[in-house]
Design brief:
hydrolase; 8 helices; exonuclease; alpha/beta; globular; Ribonucl_H; 6 strands
């Protein structure tokens, strides 16, 4: 059983884009995990009016249409708020290199202490599942989503809550934070354990 009290400050994050390549962000959610629980009272979420229109395909996935976003702030109006809220906390996301890459592209001066990937953690924790998508893991783990935001899947606030519950369920299989880090931080991302050096004669 993991000792959650020893965990550093951690935010589960999720971002949604407008469907272009590279994407403009249209929604960001950041959900603190404290004492082994998602802290919805301290969570933040931002809807963003993208510079380029939302594609029909993206709108069909997350439901954030150009009309919904028309009166929302542009990224330039929100960047400082998001940067300050994220701070240097650890972040966690599903398929985390995507969220990390887009946040870093939009916040070039931001750098988290570390990046936990629940996709990587799931592959280490649950061997030989046929799929490791968020939906597949929700079906396999059956986390308690009764308190999840009512907006539904593919919205950042819901996906961040579901990811937080999956993280906590999987972390219970490990005894320490360092074991979670070893299983869940992709190589090359912040917080990745340093590879052991081969001993030398000098």
């Amino acid at each position: 059983m993991n000792s959650f009290a020893s965990w550093p400050a951690l935010l589960v994050v999720d971002v949604e884009g407008n469907g272009t390549n590279p994407p403009d962000l249209v929604e960001i959610a950041a959900l603190p995990v404290r004492a082994g629980q998602p802290d919805t009272t301290a969570a933040r979420a931002w809807l963003i009016r993208p510079e380029r229109p939302v594609t029909a395909r993206a709108a069909g996935i997350h439901g954030l249409t150009n009309a919904v976003l028309a009166d929302k702030p542009a990224w330039a109006e929100l960047a400082d708020q998001v940067h300050d809220f994220l701070g240097q906390d650890w972040i966690c996301a599903h398929n985390a290199h995507v969220d990390y890459r887009e946040l870093l592209r939009h916040l070039p001066k931001w750098e988290p202490t570390g990046v936990i990937d629940t996709l990587r953690l799931a592959r280490a924790t649950y061997k030989n599942l046929p799929s490791y998508t968020l939906d597949a893991l929700i079906k396999h783990v059956t986390p308690d989503l009764s308190q999840a935001p009512r907006v539904g899947r593919h919205r950042a606030t819901y996906d961040a809550y579901a990811t937080a519950q999956l993280l906590l369920a999987m972390a219970a299989h490990y005894e320490t934070w360092d074991q979670v880090v070893a299983a869940a931080v992709p190589p090359g991302l912040p917080g990745a354990p340093e590879p052991e050096q081969e001993p030398t004669l000098w």
